Amino acid sequence: MKIFKKVFFFIFSVFLFSNIAFAQKLISQETQICLFCHKTVTPGIVRDWEASLHSKVTLKEALSKKPLSRKVNVDSNLVKNKDKVIGCAECHTLNPQLHKDSFDHNGFKVHIVVSPEDCKVCHLKEVEEYKKNLMSKAYVNLKKNPLYAMLIKASFEIFPNKLSESDACLACHGTKIEIKGKIKKKTMFGEMEFPLLSGWPNNGVGRINPDSSKGACTSCHPRHSFSIEIARKPYTCSQCHKGPDVPAYKVYAVSKHGNIFFSEQNDMNFKNTPWKIGEDFKVPTCAVCHISLIVDSNDNVIVERTHQMNDRIAWRIFGLIYAYPHPKDSETFKFKNKAGLSLPTELTGEFVKEVLIDKKEMKRRENKMKNICLGCHSNSWVEGFFNRFHNTIKTTNVQSLKATKIVLKAWKEGVADNSNPFDEAIEKMWIEQWLFYANSVRFASAMGGADYGVFENGRWYLKKNIQNMENWLKFMLKTK
Amino acid sequence: MKIFKKVFFFIFSVFLFSNIAFAQKLISQETQICLFCHKTVTPGIVRDWEASLHSKVTLKEALSKKPLSRKVNVDSNLVKNKDKVIGCAECHTLNPQLHKDSFDHNGFKVHIVVSPEDCKVCHLKEVEEYKKNLMSKAYVNLKKNPLYAMLIKASFEIFPNKLSESDACLACHGTKIEIKGKIKKKTMFGEMEFPLLSGWPNNGVGRINPDSSKGACTSCHPRHSFSIEIARKPYTCSQCHKGPDVPAYKVYAVSKHGNIFFSEQNDMNFKNTPWKIGEDFKVPTCAVCHISLIVDSNDNVIVERTHQMNDRIAWRIFGLIYAYPHPKDSETFKFKNKAGLSLPTELTGEFVKEVLIDKKEMKRRENKMKNICLGCHSNSWVEGFFNRFHNTIKTTNVQSLKATKIVLKAWKEGVADNSNPFDEAIEKMWIEQWLFYANSVRFASAMGGADYGVFENGRWYLKKNIQNMENWLKFMLKTK
Amino acid sequence: MKIFKKVFFFIFSVFLFSNIAFAQKLISQETQICLFCHKTVTPGIVRDWEASLHSKVTLKEALSKKPLSRKVNVDSNLVKNKDKVIGCAECHTLNPQLHKDSFDHNGFKVHIVVSPEDCKVCHLKEVEEYKKNLMSKAYVNLKKNPLYAMLIKASFEIFPNKLSESDACLACHGTKIEIKGKIKKKTMFGEMEFPLLSGWPNNGVGRINPDSSKGACTSCHPRHSFSIEIARKPYTCSQCHKGPDVPAYKVYAVSKHGNIFFSEQNDMNFKNTPWKIGEDFKVPTCAVCHISLIVDSNDNVIVERTHQMNDRIAWRIFGLIYAYPHPKDSETFKFKNKAGLSLPTELTGEFVKEVLIDKKEMKRRENKMKNICLGCHSNSWVEGFFNRFHNTIKTTNVQSLKATKIVLKAWKEGVADNSNPFDEAIEKMWIEQWLFYANSVRFASAMGGADYGVFENGRWYLKKNIQNMENWLKFMLKTK
Question: B470: exposed, middle or buried (C-beta count within 10 Å: 0-12, 13-18, 19+)?
Answer without folding.
Answer: middle
